[in-house]
Structures are given as C-alpha cells and as structure tokens.
Amino acid sequence: MKKREMKMFDKIPEVPAAEELVERALRRAVKAKRALRDKRGKERVLVTTAANIFADTFKNVVRGFPNFDEVHPFYRETLDVLIGVDAVRSALASLDWAAAKIRALSQEYSRKMRRATEREAVALRKEALGRIISVVERVERRLEVLKEARRLLRRLPIVSGDEVAAVVAGYANVGKSSFVARMSTAKPEVATYPFTTKNVSVGHIFNGNERYVVIDTPGLLDRPFSERNKIELQAISALKHLADVIVFILDPSETCGYSVERQLKLLREIRVEFKVPMLVILNKMDLLETPLGASIKTNVEKIRSEVQEFYEVSTFTGKNLDAVREKLLGMLRTARRTAFAVA
After folding, report:
1. Where does the pLDDT of residue 61 fall: very low under 50, low under 70, confident under 90, or very high at 90 and above?
2. Using CA atoms, how far apart are residues 57 and 309, in angstroms rounded to an integer?
3. Of 46, 94, 206, 295, which is most buried, counting CB atoms within 10 Å of its CB?
4. Longest dimension (CA), the chain
5. Per residue in 40-53, pLDDT tens?
C-alpha cells in the first residue's frame, strides 16, 4: 500500500449528521444576518450563508473521498465487505446532487428577494430554508453511510511506502502475537480491525535501511474456511492483497487446544487460498523437555511428512528466532524485488 493512499483517507473531512449540519448552518447564518442593517438584505444573506455552508460541506466530503478505482485493492474490497463500494459511490453522488440543488435554490431565492418587499422577503426566506433543509434531509441516510465509511477506512491497518508484508496465520493460542512481538524491533501498533472484535497487531521488522511489515490478524486466519460465513470469506479475500509472505505457525504440543491434524488442514487451505510464499514455523519447542516431549516428537514427524521445510522455535525462550528472522527477511526481499519487477 502506498503512503499517498493513507493521506487520502486522512483528507476525508468529518461527515456531520444531517441534524447537526442544519443547526450549524442556521447558527452561522443568523450571525451573518445580524451583521447587516438592510432588512431585505438580512433575509437574503441568511439564506445564502446557510446554503453555502450546506453545499460547501457536501462538496468537501465528496472531494475528500478517494477514487476507489485507483486505491489499493485491499481498501476497495475491504470497504465492499463492510459497506459496499457501490453504496459509497451512490452516497457521494447524492451529496453532489444535493450541493448543486441547494446552490440553485439559493440563487433562485436570492433573485426573488432582491425585488421583494420586506414582508415578502421574510416569507421567501422561510420558503427557501424549508426547501433547502428538505434537500438536506433527503440525503440524511447517505451522510450516515459516508460517516461509517470514513470511520472504517481510518481504522484499517497502515502499511505504507514500498513496504511488503508478512501476514501471520495459524490457530488461536499457537503464539502468533508473541511471534509478531519477537520479530518486530519496534513495539507493534495495535488497532481495532473492522472484521473482528479482537485486535490486529501491525509490527515492523527493521534491517538497516530496510523496513518490512508483520501483521497478525486474529479472528480471520485462525480456523478452517469451511467454518466461515460469507462476510468473513470476503474479508479474507481482501486480506490477500496485503500478503506478500504467509508465516504459518503450528503448535506440535497441541496445548493451543487443536490437534496437529486440524492445524495442518488449515495450513493446506491457506496455502491454496493465498498462493504466496509460505514460511512454516513449529512453536513451543521448549516443551520438548516436559512430559509432552514424546507426543511433540510424534507430531513433528507427522508435520514432516507433509511440510518440506519448517523451523522449530520457541517464542517463549527465543530459540531459533534469529534464523527465522533471517529467513523471513530473505523472503520479503525477494517479494519486494518481484513486486518492483512487475511494477
């Protein structure tokens, strides 16, 4: 994902509720009215000031949203999962229409009020504001759609510049979060991710001038796809646009609560679904020296019969993590070169 795309989301102005916008516009319009002495002019400036606030607010919101045909597919598909890109586009078009309609009404009534008597000007002001506020109320639901879209876009994981990303997968409690923390030389950012009520950790691996991203996504890649609903499957599809490498963590001790057979089944599904280089890690190998040692050795052999290359580590003691870090850095460098070659 590119830095400019995050700036696009930062530029999206706050989207007010219709009622809040009406109160704000009328409050400022009354202040502008009080500054004039001419009574007919007072009525006219009240209408034009309120109309300008409505129209300018709508146009600013429209301009603030990015063109979803140009942003990274992850953003587009994520928004499609959560709200629907077409719904957002429709809402933006409605605000565009409302801004134009309000400006036209303002101009129409401004002309009428210039020729009106004082009493007529008051009646025209009431009529004009009634029609303008009616237009605002017609796009009330559209404002809510855009308000929610803005909130969700600003919550998405931030991966910027020329970075490539490793996405960590595996069943719950296999040590994914510990791995992200161990691999990241900086403290991982933790942000609420829209697809789950849990948190997503976005850490960075630094190596000289190189910087790579490691993403842990609890709630998405921690159980079989057959157990997913449609929305979760779409969310996983969106996540594919972030993954240059998959780090899959297995727990041969099965203290995570899942058998090695179930863990391997998930590994197969993710391998087929993502089609990116995969680094397989066997965690909790410090438990070899416990009563679980014999069953761990048996499970390692089961894994060996299916996985050609893997690393045995302990995120608890740090065993073998330096070697894993070097391997992961090499895979990420290759992914970066491939991405640049394609670009």
Report:
1. very high
2. 57
3. 46
4. 98
5. 789 999 999 999 99
Between 1.20.120.1190, 1.10.10.60, 3.30.300.20, 3.90.190.20, what CATH number should domain 3-153 receive? 1.20.120.1190
Rounded distance between C-alpha atoms, residue 242 and residue 106, angstroms: 47
How far is the C-alpha of 217 from the C-alpha of 231, rounded, in Å?
A: 15
Which band of pLDDT confidence, cut at 50, 70 and 90, is reported for residue 206? confident
Q: What is the band of 219 on the pLDDT scale with cuts at 50, 70, 90?
A: low
Nearest CA-CA partner of 332 in 192, 203, 188:
203
Q: What is the 3-state secondary structure (H, E, C) of 167-223?
A: EEECCCCCCHHHHHHHHCCCCCEEEECCCCCCEEEEEEEEECCEEEEEEECCCCCCC
Cα–Cα nearest to 190, from 235, 155, 151, 150: 155
175-274-330 Cα angle (round to 5) = 65
- Model confidence over 187-196: pLDDT tens digits? 555 555 555 5
Q: Could you give phi then psi for residue 190, rounded to 5 degrees? A: -125, 125
Residues 6+ apart with CB under 8 A from 21: 53, 54, 57, 136, 143
Distance of CA 252 to the CA centre of its chain: 34
CATH class, domain 165-342, is alpha beta
Contact of 184 with 204, CB cutoff 8 Å: yes
What is the pTM (predicted TM-score) of this model? Answer: 0.69
Residues of the chain with CATH 3.40.50.300: 165-342
- What is the distance between the alpha carbons of residues 211 and 151, in angstroms, rounded to a whole number? 28
> Where exactly does CATH 1.20.120.1190 map onto the chain?
3-153
Is the separation of the CB atoms in 98 and 21 below 8 Å?
no
Show the tokens assigned to 94.
């409605």
pLDDT tens-digit readout, 93-133 = 999 999 999 999 999 999 999 999 989 999 999 999 999 99
Question: Cβ–Cβ contacts within 10 Å for residue 157, how many?
Answer: 20
